[in-house]
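quick one, 112 residues, struct below
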Amino acid sequence: ASCREMRASVAREMLRDAREVPVLDVRNSRVPALRGALEIPIDELESRLAELDRHRETPILVVGDDGVSARRACELLAGAGFRYVIFVPEGARGLFAGVRGADRLEREPETP
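---
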C-alpha cells in the first residue's frame, strides 16, 4: 500500500476525466462543500474506516484543510491496506483554485 502526492491542478484533471474516483474530504470545516465527496473529519477517520471499505482496491483522492491533514489521512488509509491513496498537498482550497465560482461558494456556504 502506498500514499502518493498529487498536485491540485493534476487532481482536477483526473477528476474531470475519471468521475468515478471518490474524493475523501477530511476537513473540519466544509466551506465550500465538495459536491459528492465522502466527508469524514480527520479526527474520526480511524474509527470510521469501515465506511470506506469498498474503496480498498480502487483509487481514492484525499483532501484536507491543508497538506498535513491530507497526508495524515492518506498515510492512515495506506497503512490500513488501501492500495491507491492519493492526497492533494494544497488542501481542498487548492483543489478549488482557479475553478469558476469557487470564490462565490466560499463566501456563500451551501444551505441544506
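Confidence is low (pLDDT under 50) at residues 100-112.
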